[in-house]
Write a structure and sequence with these properties.
Radius of gyration: 25 Å
Number of helices: 6
Distance between the termini: 45 Å
Shape: globular
Order of helices and strands: HHHHHH
Helix content: over 70%
Largest sheet: none
Number of strands: 0
Strand content: under 5%
Length: 172
């Protein structure tokens, strides 16, 4: 009974974390798209995209640490590096999806391009959420181990004195 309740709480926690992930990440993504367009009017688009990608990944990682996954503190350098790695992987997958589309369809329409890009983004977003939740912002394993130890019944105390234990060892 308790296990089922714990699993239900964990499931609802994962769902609410995913909603926060979509809101935080989506909000940063939307703001980033406008920022890239504005910055691209002054510098080359590829440079604007790279700069905004770095800045938005840093911002999103902070938001995910503080809001999405409830770490309650700033993200560490390790978490930033892991988050950047997962963002780079997601970027590579969406670029690959668009390249494949260009190879398969000579002149894809804007609707097809958007469908492919958004589908690839959605799939990588789910994978990125799982990576961030299970690896980057996973709860401290020592806390889980301490909780597990606290749930186990304590071992029975031995009534064997140190002298008796020594005698038992010599006899064996």
């Amino acid at each position: 009974m308790e296990t089922a309740q714990r699993e239900q709480r964990a499931g609802s926690g994962a769902f609410s974390a995913f909603v926060r992930f979509v809101l935080c990440g989506g909000g940063v993504g939307l703001a980033s798209s406008f920022a890239v367009a504005a910055l691209a009017s002054w510098i080359p688009w590829s440079l604007a995209n790279a700069l905004i990608t770095v800045a938005s990944t840093l911002l999103a990682t902070e938001l995910h640490a503080r809001i999405t996954f409830g770490v309650g503190r700033r993200a560490t350098r390790r978490q930033h590096a892991q988050s950047a790695g997962s963002a780079a992987a997601a970027y590579a997958v969406t670029c690959a999806a668009m390249l494949v589309l260009q190879q398969l369809v000579a002149e894809p329409g804007a609707a097809l391009e958007q469908a492919v890009y958004l589908s690839a983004s959605a799939l990588t977003g789910v994978a990125r959420f799982a990576m961030l939740r299970l690896v980057v912002f996973a709860r401290n394993r020592s806390t889980v181990a301490a909780t597990t130890r606290a749930v186990r019944p304590p071992l029975a105390r031995s009534t064997t004195t140190p002298a008796r234990a020594g005698a038992l060892c010599r006899a064996a």
